[in-house]
Amino acid sequence: MNTPISLASAGVLSLDIKQHGICFVLPPGATLEVAMLDLPGGALIQGRFTGSVLCRSGSLIIEQGAEFCGHAEAHNVYVAGRVRPTDNGQASTLKGVRLVAISEHADGSASIFSQAFAIHTQRFNAHLTTLRSDQ
Amino acid sequence: MQATSFPAKPPLRSPDVSHTGASDLIGLLAGGPEVHLQGFPERKAIRAPWNNPGLPMIAVQAFDREAPELRRQAKAWRRFVYGSFLCSFLVLGLACGYLWGLGSMRMDLGPLAPWKMVEVLPGGVKILMGGSHVVIPVGGRLPNGDMVVTVYPSRSVAVLDGSTVMVRQSGQPTEQESKK
Question: What are the backbone angles phi and psi of residue B176, rounded to the nearest 5°?
Answer without folding.
Answer: -130, 130
